[in-house]
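Structure tokens please, single chain.
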Amino acid sequence: MFRLLNRRKWQLLAVVVIVQSLVGLFLVQLTPQYRATALVMLDTRKTKVTNTADVMGGITADLGAVQTEMEVLRSANLLGRVVDKLHLESDPEYGAPPPTPLQDLLSGIRETLGGWLPVENRKPAVDGRRGKAIEQLGRTLLIQPRGRSFVIAASVDSTEPPKAKQIVDAVTDFYIVDQLNAKFDANKRATEWLDERLGELRRNVEAADRAAAEFRKESGLTLGKDSTIMSQSLTELNSQLIQARAQRADRESRLIALQRAQRDPALLGGITEVLSNTLIGSLRAQEAEVGRRVGDLNQRYGENHPRLLQARAELGQIQGRIGAEVAKIIGSVQGDAEAARAKEMQLQAQVDLMQNQAGGQGQNEVALRQLEREAETSRAVYEDFLKRFKELREQQDIQQPDARVLSAAVIPTTPTFPRYVPILAGALVVGVGLGLVVIVLMDRLDGGFRSSDQLEALTGRPTIGMIPRLSRLTLGKLRPARLACEKPTSAYAEALRSVYTAIMLGSLDSPPRVIMVTSALPGEGKSTFVASIASSLAQANRNKKVVLVDCDLRRSSVVNSLGLKDTGGTIDEYLSGTKPLEAVLGRDEASGLYYVPARKNTPNSAEILGSNTMQQFVASLAQAYDLVFLDTAPLMAISDARVVAQLADYTVFLVRWETTPREIVANALKLLRDVRKGIGVALVQVNVRRHSRYGYGDYGDLYSKYRNYYHE
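Here you go.
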């Protein structure tokens, strides 16, 4: 594939250039479109300027709200306002008929003079033209969300960049203004409704207050801070009664505990009054000290020892004093308990009396409480509505839209359609792909020969050599035959010698002396080839006599290929007996080659070449010369070559590289099927540089890769 690309690179480049040119020509015909884009963000961060929620509310921050706002941006009402502001109904881009030359002239004069002319009074747009402009603007306006964010992109395509920016700015401006107007209208309606409702609530509060006051006056209920005087007094007495009961219970529990401790002195340590009495504490310490001494004396002495008896008497005195002190405490606590019971009974009597007095006013007080609650409820509703009313009045001057322009549109500098770089890049890809297809098809459909393997596979004949094509730079002013003589170490001369070597090695038993050179079609270089190989062999060995006979009686070119002058006679004149051999035989002094020219357009050429005289002439030349080369006409053109082939010992069949069709070569060789002698095939005019790109590895490949081995 790389070799294919290398050898067909110019065809590939031609296809790419053609495709790019066609696409470029198409792009030039298109009117460029410029796109201006503005980004609108739905503001989800609401600024709270009041303590209550916004009465009008705002946009809910979800994808459904984004879709809704996109439809608002596409709405016909908003687009209609844009059309009216920018007068798009008169714009040819939006359906209006193109201006006449006179209108263009007047418009240019008005723009030139500017303020010197009066302002043009535009007539209202016709509904049909306005509707058409709105529809066109709706098709041109592109509204898209940006990912999963709350940002909406509004874009407009136009042939004029400033116009695209103006339209996008107008769309976003009207969208923001519509949001503000909607909020102002909602605020106004809410304010008016609250104003009416506040008047009604104010009247309800006043009526409720009057009803409560009149009932209080009629029932004689005197109010305290939060209720009637009697209710407040009864509440206070109940509180005192509860405290007295708790105090009485506390005193009685303490008295019972002291009485138990009096019967069981071991319990005195847990009584608070005993523990807090300093005298009892001192006596209990003395009791403990005396009790310890009694224990010690009891262990030392007997029961009737005087010291033991004295200690026991002292212990009894201390315990008696403790008991007397406890009795005093019990008496004090008992007095406190009696006082608490008396106070409780007194408060209970007062509460009973107050309840009897309040029983008659209970129904009136319940009714009063109901009226007061109704008045309080009405007042709370009124105050709440009043608060909202004040907040709405304050919000009228600080309304903010639910969206803002995140990025304003700018005048576009590069067109969005057609997108030259992507389209040309795509055209390049298409051109390369199409070029690859073309060169592959060209390579597959190519009917010529490029390698010796191809030639041998189709013809079944051995390939005896490949002759490189000579460029103008290589030849200079020389002819190929002269180049082979003057530069014997060149690749061209070496290729000629390789052909001759192959001929000789293929016939070691009987080396050929008469060699015919032919081809299938005219113009394949057989005369140049035979003149070059004959002259180079003649020059290489001066002792070897080589003669070249021009047997192409229709288009003789041997003399021209050798660059020599005519001898004054031709082969047909010799064969007809009009001139001797010396008159038609010439010699090239530079190379030592002998040659016999022919005359162009000789009549009856096949009969002349097939005559006995011709056979005798060739036989005599084979006797007198070491090598005889016969240059004949193409096989497919006339039958002369088939006749001459019977006279030759070996036939060299030339095939022009990459040019001669394979079918013609096969058919031409079939014409030589009656020839029983050797036939060799050679490729001529091989472009060695291009041939090397195929990588065949034959003669032509070596001529290209190892050119420095030859002397040019």
